[in-house]
Amino acid sequence: MNWNIASKNFRRQGLRAFLNVLITALAIIAIIFMLSLLNGFQAQATRNLVSTDVGGGHYRAPGFDILTPTKWEDITAPVPEVLKNLSARNKAEVLVQQGQLFPGRRLFPVQLRGIAMQQSLLHLPLAGLKSFSGKSAPEIIPAVVGVKMANKARLKKGDTVVLKWRDKGGAVDARDILIVDVGDFVNPRIDAGVVWLRLDHLRSMTGRDGEVSWVAVREYLGAVPGFEFHGIEVLMADLLALLNQDRINSKILWGVLMVLVCTSVFNTQVLNIFKRQKEIGTLMALGMDARRVVKIFMLEGAIAALWALALAAILGVPFFVWFQGVGIDVTHLSEASFPVRETIYPDYQPREILVSVVIVLVLVIVSAWALVKKIARMDPALALRGKAIT
Q1: First to last CA, the chain
Q2: Helix, strand, or coil (residue 212)
Q3: 264, 266, 130, 268: which is closest to 201 by C-alpha?
């Protein structure tokens, strides 16, 4: 009975009811889209960082810090047997040293990063180095730089430039390097200021046979004597902090959308009660309990919420399916510090969507109830005269 009365009252509102439902539906779609796009960006950034640098974590020489380049030459260690016995698909040995590049008579400090050519754990555009062999570095050392590095140092494929470094004994050496390729690194932290070399060549140049700065592994192997393990959370702390900040910003936008929805519902209820005072007074004068009247108006709010959910499904599902196939182009981030340059696709999390929708529906119903509860305190005589609310 109450449901039928509430349904008829809701339909009689006409355009006001439709606008209320439409605003709520659009808010639901916007919230789901915003959260899913952020999830997709976070997932893609994390995958790129893991596949190009982090792997499943690093076993590092004790005390090694990528942010202290003056100590790189002093903090290396021989590869332990437990790591040496891993297959090429489960590890990537990396040696990092400091160097100076002299492109066009300019001094350019660089990070010399040598990596084993046999490894397949990290996906890097270093195919140009694989054709060179031999444990000893040739007279002209082959090297690969990234696009950002090439643009900043004004280098191109085929250029020869002087490189200076210090070996294990502290002696300064210099030799020409040949830029055999300019790789498209999706991860800017391994592009800007980095010169990539073969691991065997860098070891030969610096006199560090069998030594590494770290070994990237596919998964944690337990404690390894003489090495410190740095997990994914530690190695990606800067990116995770940035993504957490984006989450906070998304919550602010979520709050703005909720204020708009609640304001729309609240205004609709104000107008409903103001225009229907005589109707409410008549029902109460005929003996209808005030609680039942409140329940009827509450059901109207619930009906509006359910219709909004249905409209959000009708409008949102085709849009989400279409956007999942198209994605959003973020190639403009190639000049930024984000490890993402491909097309981003939303990542829809059912649990997250369900929680968001439930919160929206609860807020809509609560907004309807916040004003309707005043009906219980109405004087039927004043309501019949239309003066219970002024």
Answers
A1: 30
A2: strand
A3: 130
